[in-house]
Design a protein that fits this description.
alpha/beta; Methyltransferase, Methionine Synthase (B12-binding Domains), Chain A, domain 1; Rossmann fold; five-stranded parallel β-sheet; 9 helices; 5 strands; globular
Amino acid sequence: MIDLKELTQAISDLNEEKAFQILQEFVAQHPSQEDVRKIIAACQQGMIFVGEMFDSDDYFVADLIFAGELMSRAVEILKPVIYRTNTKNIGTIVLGTVEGDMHDIGKNIFKCMAEAAGFAVHDLGVDVEPQKFVLKVKEVEPQIVAMSAVLTVAQRAMKNTVEALKKAGLRDKVKIIIGGNHITEYSCERIGADAFTTTASEGVSICEKWVLGASLHFAAPACLNKDGKSLQSL
């Protein structure tokens, strides 16, 4: 197995050559899906460190842009092993980055991993207004709606989307998961989602538990962690 800490460090250091070398060696090993999840989580941890470096003024906007491009290329390298075992269909997800936010790296990683897990994912793209979520939910009747946002201000759009689903009579028919670096338990409760996550792999695990476990529908949504437990009880 690849040294995950070494990969995380390479991403954090924006060492493109080293990161791609590690990823290509990983793909050549014909890894399991569990190993694929671990390697993606290591990449994401590197991106978190990049964000922290930016917040501390050690990295600049150009570094953030480069890190995003690096991560997108990393996903391209991993695609052959991400999709290798996708032979089943366990559920449907409507996915999008909400209105007012143009970020798509986390969303795209989640999409790849969800499809690899067996979900049919309908990706609405970025800057998606609430009504577009509503129309797609009516069209494809998914079990899950997944919303992404990096900008803190875009959390208002998440709440507006939940309210639009309620108004359309669709809220009780789906589970809602929200994701982004700044999403917290408080955000989840305020927005009215069922679960939140800061990593794609954790988000997919939550979705798998929903469709493969007990009933999808709760009378009162409670924000869940990756083990499917209410965060309010932790």
